[in-house]
């Protein structure tokens, strides 16, 4: 792994050296051969601090372009196209999504050496949360309300989209395990094709850990989820993945970004994930600040229900899903850190703090308060 002076957001809300080298002049020079949007003199205007890939805003004679580069062990061009097809469907239905750019051959994702690249046009709106760590609650309840409204609009637009399950587990949010009658049996089947995850779990009492910390929340859930229809969803709905514009005194969502975790899950799974991402200040755990932001959860829910009805029975299911929506993605992070970046220390954080710790938190007074507020709502 190449370490550079470039700094990114670490798992402990700290600043750490990047696993991936930043977008370079060499990257831009190669991309210029295929993308007409990068003609003329180009320079890097900003490097993203997000840690799982390298991304930058590039100034060109045709305006700014967003370039994102992935290691091919994380995203091949074919895997990126799965996200791009979904984005294009949403755009055709009127959802204000980011525009994925095509090269001279008409392709939306390209490969060069060990890297895969995607380019996007600069989205409309202001990146209000650009410098805010991931999973930080929104600063304004109006932001939460409009994020909920836009999520419902996305779900309505996605209702007629049909595509297979993602071809990778790597850094994708899925609901396979929580839909399974026996999550441990399904995970054992998956491990054979996920060497990083297999390496990390080998020798650990992971079955015991899951039965103790996570699976008590799963009792009776799989049967209830049988009636929940599959829906391609964003699965990483956080205010930092949205651009904003001012309308009078209010800020409204102008562009939806970052579909890297998208997959066919369900509308309820996506809404529960949005609750977990926005209404729990995970990075404040252990401090004196309030962790559960019930006001944010209810504002997001009110915005969502201004577009789509959520009956009482599904609200109960949503609250019961909350401690488990992170399950598949937490395991994918372990797979990534152990198998791709080779960081067992980061895999430990994903296992103990994320996979087990997030589920255990819902046993706390704060966690119960959030779930009960949603059940009441």
List the helices and strands and how they pair.
Blueprint: E1 7-9, E2 15-17, H1 25-32, E3 43-47, E4 54-60, E5 63-71, H2 77-92, E6 110-112, E7 115-121, H3 141-158, H4 176-179, H5 183-191, H6 195-201, H7 206-214, H8 221-225, E8 231-233, E9 242-247, E10 250-256, E11 263-265, H9 267-279, H10 294-305, H11 312-321, H12 327-339, H13 344-361, H14 365-376
Antiparallel strand pairs: 1-2, 3-4, 4-5, 5-7, 6-7, 8-11, 9-10
Question: Overview of this structure, please?
Answer:
- The chain is α+β, with helices and mostly antiparallel strands and 377 residues long.
- It folds into two domains: 7-121, Phosphorylase Kinase, domain 1; 141-376, Aminoglycoside phosphotransferase (APH), C-terminal lobe (Aminoglycoside 3'-phosphotransferase, Chain: A, domain 2).
- It has 14 helices and eleven strands.
- It has helices at residues 25-32, 77-92, 141-158, 176-179, 183-191, 195-201, 206-214, 221-225, 267-279, 294-305, 312-321, 327-339, 344-361, 365-376, and strands at residues 7-9, 15-17, 43-47, 54-60, 63-71, 110-112, 115-121, 231-233, 242-247, 250-256, 263-265.
- The strands form four sheets. It has a five-stranded antiparallel β-sheet with strand order 3-4-5-7-6, covered by helices on one side.
- A hairpin with a 5-residue loop joins β1 (7-9) and β2.
- α3 (141-158) packs antiparallel against α9 (267-279) and α11 runs antiparallel to α14.
- It is globular, with a radius of gyration of 20 Å.
């Amino acid at each position: 792994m190449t370490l550079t002076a470039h700094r990114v957001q670490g798992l402990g809300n700290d600043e750490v050296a990047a696993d991936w080298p930043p977008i370079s002049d060499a990257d831009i020079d190669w991309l210029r051969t295929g993308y007409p949007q990068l003609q003329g003199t180009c320079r890097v205007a900003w490097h993203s601090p997000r840690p799982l890939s390298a991304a930058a805003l590039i100034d060109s004679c045709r305006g700014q372009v967003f370039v994102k580069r992935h290691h091919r062990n994380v995203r091949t061009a074919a895997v990126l196209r799965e996200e791009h097809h979904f984005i294009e469907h949403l755009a055709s239905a009127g959802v204000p999504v980011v525009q994925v750019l095509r090269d001279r051959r008409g392709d939306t994702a390209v490969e060069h050496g060990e890297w895969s690249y995607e380019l996007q046009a600069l989205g409309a709106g202001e990146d209000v949360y650009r410098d805010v760590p991931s999973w930080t609650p929104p600063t304004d309840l109006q932001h939460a309300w409009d994020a909920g409204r836009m999520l419902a609009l996305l779900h309505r637009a996605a209702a007629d989209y049909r595509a297979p399950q993602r071809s990778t587990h790597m850094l994708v949010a899925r609901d396979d395990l929580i839909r399974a009658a026996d999550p441990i049996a399904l995970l054992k089947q998956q491990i054979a094709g996920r060497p990083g995850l297999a390496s990390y779990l080998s020798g650990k009492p992971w079955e015991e850990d899951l039965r103790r910390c996570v699976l008590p929340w799963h009792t009776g859930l799989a049967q209830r989820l049988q009636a929940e229809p599959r829906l391609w969803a964003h699965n990483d709905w956080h205010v930092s993945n949205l651009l904003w514009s001012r309308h009078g005194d209010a800020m409204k969502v102008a562009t939806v970004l970052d579909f890297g975790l998208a997959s066919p899950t369900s509308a309820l799974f996506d809404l529960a994930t949005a609750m977990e991402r926005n209404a729990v200040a995970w990075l404040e755990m252990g401090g004196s600040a309030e962790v559960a932001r019930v006001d944010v959860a209810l504002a997001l829910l009110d915005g969502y229900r201004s577009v789509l009805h959520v009956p009482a029975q599904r609200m109960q299911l949503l609250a019961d899903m909350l401690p488990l929506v992170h399950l598949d993605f937490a395991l994918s992070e372990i797979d990534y850190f152990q198998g791709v970046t080779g960081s067992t220390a980061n895999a430990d954080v994903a296992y103990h703090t994320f996979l087990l710790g997030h589920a255990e938190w819902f046993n706390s007074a704060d966690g119960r308060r959030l779930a009960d507020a949603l059940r009441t709502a």
